[in-house]
Design brief:
Blueprint: H1 6-14, E1 18-20, E2 30-32, E3 36-39, H2 49-57, E4 61-64, H3 68-75, H4 89-100, E5 104-111, E6 114-124, E7 127-135, H5 140-154, E8 159-163, H6 167-170, E9 175-178, H7 179-190, H8 205-208, H9 212-215
Parallel strand pairs: 7-8
Antiparallel strand pairs: 1-2, 3-8, 3-9, 4-5, 5-6, 6-7
Helix pairs in contact: 3-4
EC number: 2.3.2.6
Function: Functions in the N-end rule pathway of protein degradation where it conjugates Leu, Phe and, less efficiently, Met from aminoacyl-tRNAs to the N-termini of proteins containing an N-terminal arginine or lysine.
Protein name: Leucyl/phenylalanyl-tRNA--protein transferase
Length: 217
């Protein structure tokens, strides 16, 4: 792969491909274009009952874009069940640059002034490319994901790309679709305006409600 620049990275995402490293210590990257693409449909996003109770208790302070690089580096740290990750130093630098441009965002879960979970991704048009998440406290990354989706729905986003589908994401309604279907959704989303709202006052209830049909998910 030739040397990546932030602008080249934006063109790649707009074309439906993304880079990964084989390990966090390997400076090289390669392009990924899955035949089956993971997405989280915003209109059918599922908040499990137990997580809804956690959200109501409000045990986390949610911030956006206040510690973007720290979130990225935490996502790249090895864990007992994930000894290796694909986020290397060049990827960190590229996304920090895109964050400085206002295109990459983080949603963070804090407790007592400590960052305990979060996620980050890239916004282009009405598409949001979710990259990675981490958790140092139970449910921290899940709470961050719910708050991300609330912001995407409020801001007019049409597509939440998860790249792949994991067991963690399946509980929220993540699905796989063929590459050509994904590219059609992406092409449409890129032509539409959307706005990522980082304000702390935007609660998850505005997107999912507390009663009625939404509460039966």
């Amino acid at each position: 792969m030739r040397a990546l620049t932030p602008d080249l990275l934006l063109h790649a995402y707009a074309a439906g491909i993304f880079p990964m490293a084989r390990s966090r210590s390997d400076p090289r990257m390669y392009w990924v274009d899955p035949e089956q693409r993971g997405i989280l449909p915003l209109e059918t996003f599922h908040v499990p009952h137990r997580l809804r109770r956690t959200l109501r208790r409000g045990g986390f302070e949610i911030r956006c874009d206040s510690a973007f690089e720290a979130v990225m580096r935490a996502c790249g740290e090895p864990t007992p069940d994930r000894p290796e990750t694909w986020i290397n130093e060049p990827i960190v630098r590229l996304f920090v640059d895109l964050h400085d441009r206002g295109l990459a965002h983080s949603v963070e879960a804090w407790q007592d002034g400590t960052l305990v979970g979060g996620l980050y991704g890239l916004a282009l048009g009405a598409a949001f490319f979710g990259e990675s998440m981490f958790s140092r406290q139970t449910d921290a990354s899940k709470v961050a994901l719910v708050h991300l989706v609330a912001r995407l729905k409020a801001g007019g986003f049409r597509l939440l790309d998860t790249q792949f589908v994991t067991a963690h994401l399946s509980q929220f309604g993540a699905i796989e679709i063929p590459r050509q279907d994904y590219r059609r959704l992406l092409s449409d989303a890129l032509t539409r305006p959307a706005w990522f709202d980082p304000s702390p006052g935007l609660g998850w209830e505005c997107a999912f409600g507390e009663q009625g049909e939404a509460d039966s998910l």
